[in-house]
UniProtKB/TrEMBL annotation:
The keyword Calcium does not apply. The gene is lspA. It comes from Micromonospora aurantiaca. Its main location: membrane. Keywords: Aspartyl protease, Cell membrane, Hydrolase, Membrane, Protease, Transmembrane, Transmembrane helix. Pathway: Protein modification; lipoprotein biosynthesis (signal peptide cleavage). This is Lipoprotein signal peptidase. InterPro entries: Peptidase_A8 (IPR001872). The keyword Membrane applies. HAMAP family: LspA. It is a multi-pass membrane protein. It is found in: Cell membrane. This protein specifically catalyzes the removal of signal peptides from prolipoproteins.
Length: 187
């Protein structure tokens, strides 16, 4: 005989506080390191190039577009996209229950925030600012630490996806509700 007793409604999965802390910590760290490194580059690098090693040099450039200077005429669109990415990660971050996903999303949010700071507060104006890039490889376009955080975050997310690691685990009573929902028609 099916169980017709009403079950409590399934509540949204909430990330453990430490997972939210990992996400926020990764984001704040990526943002702080990026802002500090760009401030140093703007102060010390105008008009000079510093060769470091193995084709890596420090050269100050300003990029109105996205990666590889794509879309240099639509800087405000990149501002909106960065805000949307940060908002989406902030909203969804409450549900992340895996530390690796928390760090990956934090790096993506921090990298997006680092470049957003430039777009909001650098010349030529609000929402149209050019991103400061200063890391130059002989074989790669000039980039910054926000770009590096974004790439590392995406790489970790891809690795976790390939390993089928879920962003969050379902609530403990989801299977019981699904089973009883079939019997009672409720959900």
């Amino acid at each position: 005989m099916p169980n017709l007793r009403r079950r409590p409604p399934v509540t949204a999965v909430q990330a453990p506080p430490q997972r939210v802390a990992w996400l926020a910590g990764a984001a704040v760290t990526a943002l702080a390191v990026d802002v500090a490194s760009k401030s140093a580059a703007v102060a010390w690098l105008p008009g000079r190039s510093v060769d470091l090693f193995a084709g890596l040099a420090l050269r100050l450039t300003r990029n109105p577009g996205a990666a590889f200077s794509i879309g240099t005429g639509i800087t405000p669109v990149f501002t909106v996209v960065a805000v949307a990415v940060i908002a989406g990660i902030s909203w969804y971050g409450r549900k992340v229950t895996h530390r690796g996903w928390a760090v990956a999303l934090g790096l993506i949010a921090g990298g997006a925030a680092g470049n957003l700071v430039d777009r909001l507060f650098r010349s030529p104006g609000l929402g149209r600012g050019h991103v400061v890039d200063f890391l130059h490889l002989d074989w790669w376009p000039t980039f910054n630490l926000a770009d590096s955080a974004l790439i590392c975050g995406v790489a970790v997310a891809m690795w976790l996806s390939l390993r089928n690691v879920p962003l969050s685990v379902p609530a403990a009573d989801d299977s019981a509700v699904s089973t009883s929902a079939g019997a009672t028609g409720e959900r």
